[in-house]
Amino acid sequence: MIPSPDPITIPQSYETLPLTHVKVSHHPLGAPEATQVIVVTLNRPEKQNAFTVEMMDDFEKIYPMFDLDERVKVVVLTGAGRIFCAGADLERGFKGIQKERTIDHRDTGGRLALAIYRCRKPTIAAMQGSAVGLGMTMSLPCAIRIGCEKAKYGFVFPRRGLTMESSSSFFLPRLIGYSNAMYLLTTAGVFPPTSPHFGRLFAETYPDPEKVVSRALELASEIAENVSPMASYLSRELMWRNPGTAEEAHLVDSAVLYHMFTGRDQQEGVKAFFEKRNPSFKATLEDDAPPNFPWWTEIDTGRRGKSARSKI
């Protein structure tokens, strides 16, 4: 089983963190302290950014930091070089996997996906190049995906004798519908991001890889400057953690909304609107969460971390 994480110490700068196969940058680049937009780059271009255990370790280290760091508003995830991610590193293979009971195993891709999913800060996947397998599934818990029209994307697991991973059996059909998901996994083919088989998985596509990244940064900056992080996070959770019926959703929505009516972000948002300026949202889950949060029963796959010290 995954042990409980150590208390999380939030760094002044993310650019100085010792990471192995992932690079973290501020936007704008070189800012001495954490910025509202953080760029996470898969950094094995010589191996087409193929996924490694070290990459999973890096994600499990940095995403809990983003979750707790109120300076960070949006994360942009991209890849170094021409390829976003070629999936799991098949050259390394699956040898050396620690022997354990099947019921205790937690797949590495799933641990990465849950790190993104559990973070209250949204991630925009700027998929500047092709992606298959785990390279695709890591994008599913992201809030937005932007693709390159010259690239190919696919869920190729059955062509490698494997099944879906990274909790993708949960995310994919909810994002694009069961019919599209069934087609993609039955054919296990690769397609351009404009293929109808992806439905609206890609929010936007561009022919130029550099435009994919620049657009993601532009969108991230616009979100960071104008959107309440707490309201955005709770809205996403209301969709992902929907209780299942319209009536049950009405009860949950009503309780959350009633609390937000008198929240400090609501007051600031309305004031900024009338004053014709960008808002300065300050609400946090620690201090301002609705009384029914979380409204779901949390599953302990390895508990999320807590901050080791006060806010910066």
UniProtKB/TrEMBL annotation:
<protein>
    <recommendedName>
        <fullName>Enoyl-CoA hydratase</fullName>
    </recommendedName>
</protein>
<comment type="similarity">
    <text>Belongs to the enoyl-CoA hydratase/isomerase family.</text>
</comment>
<dbReference type="Pfam" id="PF00378">
    <property type="entry name" value="ECH_1"/>
</dbReference>
<dbReference type="InterPro" id="IPR029045">
    <property type="entry name" value="ClpP/crotonase-like_dom_sf"/>
</dbReference>
<dbReference type="InterPro" id="IPR014748">
    <property type="entry name" value="Enoyl-CoA_hydra_C"/>
</dbReference>
<dbReference type="InterPro" id="IPR051053">
    <property type="entry name" value="ECH/Chromodomain_protein"/>
</dbReference>
<dbReference type="InterPro" id="IPR001753">
    <property type="entry name" value="Enoyl-CoA_hydra/iso"/>
</dbReference>
